[in-house]
Structures are given as C-alpha cells and as structure tokens.
Amino acid sequence: MNLAAHLRAAGIAALALAAAPAAFAQHAHGHAAARTMADTMAVYPGLAVGVFAAEPDVVNPTNMDVDSKGRVWITEGANYRSTFQKWGKLRPGGDRIQILEDTDGDGVADKATTFYQGEEINAALGICVLGDTVIVSRSPDILVFQDKNHDLKADGPPRKLFSGIAGVDHDHGAHAFSFGPDGKLYFNVGNEGRQLKTADGTNWIVDADGNEVRGHRKPYQQGLVFRCDPDGSHLETLGWNFRNNFEVAVDSFGTLWQSDNDDDGNKGVRINFVMEFGNYGYTDEFTGAGWGDKRTGMEEDIPRRHWHLNDPGVVPNLLQTGAGSPTGIAVYEGDLLPEVFRGQIIHCDAGPRVVRAYPVRKQGAGYSAEIVDLVSSADGWFRPSDVTVGPDGSVYVADWNDAGVGGHYMADQDLATMTGRVYRIAPKGHRPTVPKLDLSTPAGAVAALKSPNNATRCVAWQAVHEIGAAAEANLGKLWSDANPRFRARALHLLARIDGRAATYVAAAIKDPDADIRIAGLRIARELHLDIVPIVRQLASDPDRQVLRECAIALRHHKSPEAPALWAKLADRHDGKDRWYLEALGIGADKNWDACLAAFLQARGGQWNTTSAREVIWRSRAKATPSLLVKIVRDASTGEKEKQRFMRAFDFQSSPEKDAALVELLTSSTR
C-alpha cells in the first residue's frame, strides 16, 4: 500500500496526500527546528509550549512516563513494524529506553541516558516507572526491569510478568501500565492482543472470575482492560470488546477512562468511561459479527452503528470525536494548569494533531463531556503519542513526529534523519520544580501523596503502606482535607491498615461527597468486605452514580438477599438512563432469573411501563422472551420500538426463546 493509501485508511485528511517521500527527508531536524515547530503551535490561553527534548536524544517516542524526580522516560520506535515492513530494522541492537533529565531546572533536558537497549523492546507501546521497577509493554510480553542501585541502568535483562499476548509488532497489542490509588496496576491490550498467558507462556491466565483470558467470547473478545496486584496476581478483567484501547487512566476515586479507535475512516473514535465488567460493543456479543453486518434495528449513522449501541448489553460511549488516531491519556489532578483542566482527562490524538481535555459533567449514572484543546499544530509532522504530568503539575507531551500516522507506516525511514520530540506545557514563565521527598517519615510520605505526578504517588503509597498504623494520624489529616481527591487517596490507605477497613469504609459510605461514597464502596469490594449491608444502606442514595456502583457490586453475589436489593435498584431506573440500565445488567449477570422475578414481584407483575420495558429489554432471564412477545404485540409499541425489542431476542439463550418466537409468529399470522 502506498503512503496516500495508508493515510486515507487512517482517516488523516489534513496531510497533503500527494507529498512525495523525497519531501519527508527535507523535514528540519534538531532542537532549533523543534523550537520553531513549537512556536507555531496553538496552545490554551495563558500557557506556553517549550521543547523539553528532541532528536537525536529521542526518536519516535511511542510512550512516556515521568518519574518522581521529574525525569522523562521514553520507549522509542525506531524499529517500528520492522518485522513486516520493507525498511527492516533501522537501529541495530534493538530499540532503547531513554531517560531525559533537566539537571539545571531550565525546562530543557540536558542529559540523556540509555536505560536499556534490546530487540525485545522494539517499538514497545508502554512504560510505567514505579520507583526502582520499570514495566515495559511490548507484545508478546510484559517485561519488568529493576534498577536497585539507582544508576539509571537496568540491573540486567528483564523478567516477564505476562506473556503470550498476540499482536506482536502491532499497534493493537499490549499497552502501558499505570499505578492506581488502590495500590494495584491497571493496563490494557488492543484487539490484536486478545489474551494473556503466564510468564513462561505455558498456560492461559485465569482471572478472578474464573475465566481464561482469551478472546473467544467466553465472555471476552477484542480489546481488554485489566487490574492486578503488582506481582501480577489477582487479575481482574474489567472491560472488553474495544478495538484499539491505547491506554487506560485511573483517577483518585478509582474511575477508569480510556479512548478507542474506530475502523479507520468511519469517524467513530470514542472516549469511554470504563464501567467495570462492561461490554463495549466493537463486535456482536454473541456471534462476533462486525458492526457493518446487517442486524435488526441497527443505528442509522455509522459512527454509532460502529459500536453496536443499539444492542442490550453494550455500555454507552462518553463522547465520540470523529476521525483520528487516539493514543496516550492521563487524568490531570494538579492545580498548575487552568481550572478547566483540573481533575479532567487529557488525551492525545495523533490523527488531527491535537492534545485535548474532555471536561466531564455528571449526567445520571454516567457523564457528558465537551472538548477543550490544550495544544494543537497545523504542522503535518506533529503526532502526539503520549501525555503525562510532572511532579510540579507541568504537562509533558511526547511527539512521534512523522508525516503519517496509522496504517503501520512511517514516512521517516532513515535513522540518521529520524525525529522525535517531548514538549513541556505550563503557564508562561513557569520554571519546572521537583519537590523534595521525605518518604522515611509518616508526615513526609503522606505529604507526597498530594503530588499531581502518578509516579510520586506510587512511591508515596508504597512508603505509607509499609509504615502502616504509624501513618494513621497523618493520613487522618489528609482524610479531612478540602480536596476530595486527596481524601480519596488517604481513604485507600486508611482502609488497608490492619483491622481498620470496616471503620473507614463505614465512614466513607456516609460521606456527603458522592465520589467518596463511591470510592468507599469500591474499596469494600476490593477488600472482600460483606457488600450486602453496604448496598442495603446505599440503595436509597440520592446520587445515581452511587446507585450505579451498588448495582455493579451485586455482580455474581451469592447472597439470597441480592435479588431483592437488585430489584430495589432496578425500581429506581427512570427508563431513560442507559448508563444505569447497563449497570443493572452487569449486576444481574448469572443471576437474571432471580433478579427479574424479584423486580416483577416488587412491581406486582407490572411490565407495561417505560422503565420496566427497558429492564426487560436488557434482561437475560428465562422469563424474558415471553415478556418481549407481550411488548412487541402490545398496541402501544411503535414500529421502530418493535425492531428494538426484536433485536433483544438475539441475546436470549434459554430454551424459552424458541417457544416465544413461535408464539409471536403464530399470533402475527392469525
């Protein structure tokens, strides 16, 4: 495929497709050229873009992290697609992990160190720095490096955390890890990754639900999102059926955010709030059919049809952003940038050459969002690949810096002319600072938890957790802070002090702040506290997002009280909130018969209301098919609605389905 075809496939209209490869070699190189390019960028008012690093210190940056000392760690992709493309391996000895350091505090890196170089990290798509541990994601493996002597050189070859991930040398394989406020690791794989195996490659990973992690629709398929302990144990599959979910970000409340790319050229790029254990609709849940295959009641517009949003059991999208090539994502929890960015998702889209924020507002059990550009460029070579936050709240953007993106192509195929940049975004005139840490005392370790930099929060979390009960007084002060994100970080650690979980969860679920109540409920689930009395207490909560989390908490619960609690939550459905409906569906999974029966009993058998019809549409009980027949035959059901309820039959697997369809067919021929 020629360059023009590659770029069309990626949906990139802004680049002049007629440009000849010879023109690419004329692209300016070096720090001065990078500064010239930065000077032409459009940036949010009051902020400035500075060049932190450029070639030859860094080329083709695929992913990035900023450690607690403000050093920028980069995985490079000079050998991108070298296994398959005609240009072959451009860097002998394999790709590098580069550490870029600003030793004099002027905002420009003046020292570059190669942490590791090797074939096993060629075009790695993820790096996560956790103190003296560095996790690198590159299909087929998740690799763990150590630097125990802190000399910025890997102590030796990496060990494997997971292996067997498909999508080798492919953008849709293994992606970056991040550290969560609960002390766990979060990561994802795109739809070519498909699966996880043990470090030795001999066995499928079996997750906390007892399912093999492989894309064979039992129940998992396509792109996947995970959570696990730092040693890889207790792995949970948190979401599935994405296309190329490039990276996952988790905020201080434990809420997950992600982007996902469409089949290129269909203007369906999306941003997702990842509701835990949700199906995200890239392919048909039961058959694996693609979005273009004919189905009953399919959406009229392609961007929405693309994600099977008409299907019961598909979690809705937060936002669809059109054409693009989405890459790195972060949650900005600092206060250096203007208010509009604080507490919000910041995300790179290399296709339209922009780094954006998506300020969210609560909307029922879900969210709505708008788009606010942080930085963009008209220069066809600006291809932002990742974004992360420094210890002072500055934002760093990695720029792959190439004339094309997507289609497994790169225009610059000569190592001597290859480019790559890292920019720093901060208020005009702001000089970067790196706060000194004292992790040896409870006060110092707890203070470090307030950092906007995730790597700093990681080492602080580890130090506070090690200190244990001796840190409770200092954590208690942070728990009383006015900033709810600081409070949530304190709560996660307070609940993990031996013997204190129940006390702090009880305080959290009574808190006036709904986000703290949600964090408390999530902590209770992770620590395997008795969920039933907690859900019983929260089932009358005025906040629909709290109710959403209550429904999810009942998933696969064995208590005989669970169906009645679920029915009480289902009775709160307003018939319009799809987020809430899908949370109910997640909560009733594998317990639909009891849950739907409890719901209908609580309603006196009444099914003919808008809200009850929606619950039935989403349900998977043995009683569902006969109820669907009643709805379809009801005179008040419009033709378009009949199509929607007929589609629900495709998600019924009980023997009662066939009998119901026969009844519907015979009644329609009378």
How are the elements arranged and paired?
Elements: H1 3-9, H2 21-24, H3 30-39, E1 42-43, E2 47-54, E3 61-66, E4 72-76, E5 95-101, E6 111-118, E7 126-130, E8 133-138, E9 141-146, E10 159-162, E11 178-179, E12 185-189, E13 223-228, E14 236-242, E15 248-250, E16 256-260, E17 269-273, E18 278-279, H4 302-305, E19 319-322, E20 326-332, E21 344-349, E22 354-357, E23 360-363, E24 366-369, E25 372-376, E26 384-389, E27 395-399, E28 421-427, H5 442-448, H6 454-467, H7 472-479, H8 484-494, H9 501-508, H10 514-526, H11 531-538, H12 544-553, H13 562-570, H14 578-587, H15 592-602, H16 610-618, H17 624-633, H18 639-648, H19 656-668
Parallel strand pairs: 14-18
Antiparallel strand pairs: 1-25, 2-28, 3-4, 4-5, 5-6, 7-8, 8-9, 9-10, 11-12, 12-13, 13-14, 15-16, 16-17, 17-19, 20-21, 21-22, 22-25, 23-24, 26-27, 27-28
Helix pairs in contact: 5-6, 5-7, 7-8, 8-10, 9-10, 10-12, 11-12, 12-14, 13-15, 17-18, 17-19
